[in-house]
Amino acid sequence: QVQLVESGGGLVQAGGSLRLSCAASGRTFSTFPMGWFRQAPGKERDVVVATTWSGTNTYYADSVKGRFTISRDNAKNTVYLQMNSLKPEDTAVYYCAAKLKYYSTTYYTEVADYDFWGQGTQVTVSS
């Protein structure tokens, strides 16, 4: 069982930055592929970034390429999402997710691929 807790959301002006953290419980967290998703009001939950267990291979949604960066510190059981040059359209609840697949060298971009989810953290970008 893996429990995920996001933090770091908040209100920021357009052009600003935030760093989200996703702290995981469970000794095997470091072996799972991870993802960050977001869901804006009235919209579906979509992938933002997804990475393999080692962080070697990573997928970024076109809308965040060059602005967002995922990193993971497996020693601390934590995944980060650094978000720069934020735009009002980035406003959403952000979720981290883990897939129960040990040492996966594949990243996963669909909601249905993931087995564990955090409770979400609100990010609001004002214009």
What's the quick description here?
Helix content is 0%, strand content 45%. By secondary structure, it is an all-beta fold. Strands 2, 4, 5, 6, 9, 10 and 11 form a seven-stranded mixed β-sheet that branches.
Low-confidence sequence ranges: none
Q: What value does the Rg take, in angstroms? A: 13 Å
Average pLDDT over all residues? 94
Total count of strands: 11
β content, as a range? 35-45%
Helical content (DSSP H or I, runs of 4+) = under 10%
Ends apart, CA distance between termini: 40 Å
The protein's oligomeric status is single chain
Category from helices, strands and their pairing: mainly beta
User: Helix count?
Assistant: 0
What order do the helices and strands follow? EEEEEEEEEEE
Using the alpha-carbon principal axes, give the shape: globular
Report the major sheet. Answer: 7 strands, mixed
Q: Can you walk through the features of this model?
A:
This protein has 127 residues and is an all-beta fold. Helices cover 0% and strands 45% of the residues. The strands form 2 sheets. Strands 2, 4, 5, 6, 9, 10 and 11 form a 7-stranded mixed sheet that branches. It has a 4-stranded antiparallel sheet with strand order 1-3-8-7, with no helix packed on it. Strand 5 and strand 6 (58-60) form a beta hairpin. The model has no long low-confidence stretch (mean pLDDT 94).
Mind sketching the topology for me?
Elements: E1 4-7, E2 10-13, E3 18-24, E4 34-39, E5 46-51, E6 58-60, E7 68-73, E8 78-83, E9 92-98, E10 116-117, E11 121-126
Parallel strand pairs: 2-11
Antiparallel strand pairs: 1-3, 3-8, 4-5, 4-9, 5-6, 7-8, 9-10, 9-11
